[in-house]
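Appendix B, Record 12. Input sequence as logged:
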Amino acid sequence: MTLRLFLDLDGTVYLGGKIIDTVDVELRRIAASGAAIYYMTNNTSLSSGEYSRKLGKLGLPLAEGSIISPTVVLCDWMRAQRIRSVFAVGTEAFCSELEARAGVTVTDLQPDCVVVAFDKEVTYAKLETACGLINAGTPWYLTHIDLACPSPLGPIPDCGAIGRLIEATTGSAPAGHFGKPGDLMLDFLRSQISTDDQTIVAGDRLYTDAEVGLRLGARTVVVCTGEFRPGNAKIDSRIEIHDTLAAFLRLQVE
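Logged structural output:
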């Protein structure tokens, strides 16, 4: 039996690039015991390579395939659907990863679809182009549904918020998304798990992280270092609430 931990990043493992509590120490301890650790982020503002470098600098244990993001799932989907071109409301790093991993061309000239990501480089020109393509009938997708991203300044606009602006403008709803807790992400996660594994999912959001854990039938943990605050919602009895991820790991995972 293998212990597999699927961990959210922003608001769970770190906040603003700073490790929360002593989670780095606990994760190194658990990795040394043979556990498989996955970083299951919905944040598509960085590429997989940038995440690997960032987590490495923070002293977090990494292995091949440790980074799981909507970009990874999206690229698999685009290859399966034979998508050749896309217009992206996304960072330069996001666009480069689409081209490298999925072999697509990022263009505003008759793309097969429009993809909206967590674009920290968003401009009015990108929004205008995306809306024009959608108004003309081009299908569009979100990388993920998160409305806000935790930060040291408090919540900041995420992909879901950008998507709501576009939907309100065009009157057209996105055709789907590729992040937590969507079906495509869940299918990808199931492909990483064997029936005899012990699986733990941990994060700071009820509607993404906890929903993934419950739908996988995994041990589901929500921490209070990001979006979630005790008492702000009715909690499913299957969800464990802990102050920090490190506190949970120290007490519950040997």
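The chain has a mean pLDDT of 94.
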